[in-house]
Design a protein that fits this description.
The protein is of the alpha/beta class. It has 8 helices and 7 strands; from the N terminus they run βαβαβαβαβαβααβα.
């Protein structure tokens, strides 16, 4: 379901892997998304790292003159993975503080392919939405069918009575960057 028409999206949180993944398409879509957001004047808010898909989306946005806000915990700065060429880089004490800041600074959320961290961020903002902590759009960019099995699982959760159909419906799904932007009303 698209967001309300009066929602003005200025910044989008992008959740994604600190790895490139097994298929080059994953990095390609991260680059495409970073560029597309920057061209439209939409800021990227992300985990602040200079590795994997995180790096790809950030550098693509920066290359197009976009705003990129990184939020990274001290533990990752200490591991020397912080991206030092961003518009803004915020260092937090904990992962919890990081996620809260990303949530506060974002008007919508897009999940690209990723692992535990991406899934954890995704499910936290979905839980926040079901608890009415926010009403911001949450979208899976299902690049190359990456999230097909997760979507099947969520459908099964509904069948098993563990997830309400109305909660399942808040997960927007796009197969391409263009479709994602259209669903968010920023095409």
């Amino acid at each position: 379901m698209p967001p309300p028409l009066d929602l003005r999206i200025k910044n989008i949180a992008v959740f994604c892997a600190s790895a490139d993944g097994a298929k080059p398409e994953y990095r390609d879509v991260a680059v495409e998304l970073g560029r597309a957001l920057a061209i439209r004047g939409i800021g990227v808010v992300y985990g602040g790292a200079k590795v994997g898909l995180m790096q790809a989306v950030a550098e693509a946005a920066l290359a197009e003159g976009g705003r990129v806000i990184g939020v990274i915990p001290t533990v990752l700065v200490d591991l020397e993975v912080a991206h030092d060429g961003l518009t803004e880089l915020h260092v937090t004490d904990t992962m919890h503080t990081r996620k809260a800041m990303i949530g506060e600074r974002s008007d919508a959320f897009i999940a690209l392919p990723g692992g535990f961290g991406t899934l954890e961020e995704l499910f936290e903002v979905l839980a926040w939405q079901t608890l009415k902590i926010h009403a911001k759009p949450v979208l899976l960019l299902n690049s190359n069918g990456f999230y097909d099995k997760l979507l099947e699982f969520l459908d099964d959760c509904v069948k098993q009575g563990m997830l309400k159909a109305k909660s399942r419906a808040i997960v927007m799904v796009a197969g391409s960057v263009d479709e994602a932007l259209m669903l968010l009303g920023i095409a």
